[in-house]
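name: query_chain
kind: protein
chains: 1
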Amino acid sequence: MLRNALVTGSIACVATLVAAALCGTAKKGSAVAPINATSHVLWGNEAARALRPDVKHTVPGIAINEGASVFWAAIYERAFGRRVDRGDWTAAIAGGAAIAALAYLVDYHLVSKRLTPGWERHLDGRSLAAIYAALALSLPLRGLLRRSVP
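structure:
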């Protein structure tokens, strides 16, 4: 399960980073601003002002997103991984949606402001919905890719 969670989490990380970058470009003219904002866990409000790629904000922003993605992927794999591996795509997609909804609830309503993803510093509700939709749709991909390879 750990290997599956690492693969699924890495896919989810890329999907959410791409969604955040696209939304950041559209809303702020900076693909990396929402990614840098995630490093507010380490650097506080200064992270929201980092609009260009840099080692101090971008690398931790990516690493924190990877860690969170693997965490949510582990929950997804534990709850739905076997069903995905058996080809139960209804459960796979519903499971992705359920885990993404749980992630949103935890990220924006249960943890302290300091532990949020930080995306809200640059993005609106529609953009956040797009990022969590990317999470929901990316969680079943490992199983899909595995089943499509003979």
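note: The CA atoms of residues 12 and 138 lie 5 Å apart.
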